[in-house]
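Z., the sequence and structure:
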Amino acid sequence: MSSKIFSAAVVGLDAEIVEVEADTGGGELGKITIVGLPDMAVSESKERVRSAIKNSGLTSPKRHVTVNLAPADLKKQGPSYDLPIAVSILMATNRIIITGDSKKMLFVGELALSGEVRAINGVLPIVIKAEKAGFEKIFVPVANLMEARLVKNIAVMPINNLRELIDSLEGRKPIEPAPFCDIDFDNAKIIYDMAHIKGQDHVKRAMEIAAAGAHNMLMVGPPGSGKTLIARTMPSILPNLTLEEALEITKIYSVAGLLSSERGLVLSRPYRSPHHTASGVALVGGGTWPKPGEVSLAHRGVLFLDEFAEFPRQVLENLRQPLEDGEIHVSRAAGNLSFPAKFILVSAMNPCPCGYAGDQEKNCVCSQSQIINYKKKISGPIIDRIDLHVEVPRVNFDKLNSETMSEESPAIKKRIEAARCIQKKRFQNEPFITNSEMSSEATKRYCQVDESSRKLLANAVDQMHLSARAFFRTLKLARTIADLEAVENIFTAHIAEALQYRPRVE
């Protein structure tokens, strides 16, 4: 006798429906064979399934059982197929008879030897795929319930163990579907507030512009000038997530296995700060089975790279594609995948190896060649992709000791949200949502300038040796500055301020 139920495979950040078929007869008695391009974790599931069935009060099959995971050319990985394999075997051997339409049900979950159902990675994209494919019910581990119930129009059935699932499928003790989760994005706790930063008004202005248009930023200054603290305040001034953005981020964290079981949805914008010893794979993603890297984990949030010049040059070169396209393409033997990577890059570095070049208090001990070589660690193409270059000088004692509080993050956040609303309305028919994401063609269309501004830009291109990319990024930055002032046209003052953030020509 044969049986067929449904499960799903996570491919990148999406999922594909997998048919789990079981057939008895032929071969060695009591043996379970799994085919359909399984990895080692899937192949080992037969031992977990055998023990789970026995410890759930049922007898293991005495006949040979062949389990097929279709489509056969799709690589299957991980332990999430344990539960559907167990159900399919029990159906094929007449151990259970399902009440209801099994073609409208989908099963995922890892089995312990005791029959308990353990959490798996990637439940959210699986539930989204199941809902789109027309399934009515999906059975998931209780530990994955918080993320699974974020999807409407499908009954999410949480299960603790295999025995509980069997009783429900046979109609003895039906499991109640979990209710849909209500979402509140306006509850993020502010840990680092802009009000805590003493002085550095020009840097905070640059941060405001970067947050308003999702522009990349580089801070250069001596040790202790506040670069790291300033970067940590960025999430406090970013707008609240939309539901669409939150689901995008949650899918990434679910696939990466970083989603908390206590909170199914990522409610605040990510802030990632990898150490400068991080590898290229850790930064952009990859591995034998490609997983998201730091650039994707920072999607719709902030990627802070401290000690920017200390990162290996080849690692930083991996940032070219995500900084330009907002996504990263990972090619491995296991397949070619794309992960979203629309983040705000905030980076910080010292002006020289000792850190005190140009400092008013301490003398630099580096030679000119050492300083030049230090700056050469960051290539021109990477520098060209950064919109705001800001010097962060040492803060004097009077400002550090001052009791006067600076402007708080919520007040700055309101201005940024107003600027983002202008962009949302402007780009309502476009595939992007912020000024920094505009293509060259869109920049020409939405960043018209008057004659005096055009002359200023022409002089800047000649004197500052701006590349075509730098030219368009300057226009996007000026567009954001104008949006912060809530004016429709870009004026000369906006262009002039945007040009101040380009790196100095040496």
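The chain is about 35% helix and 15% strand. The chain has three domains: 2-169, 194-410, 438-506.

Let me know what you think.
H.
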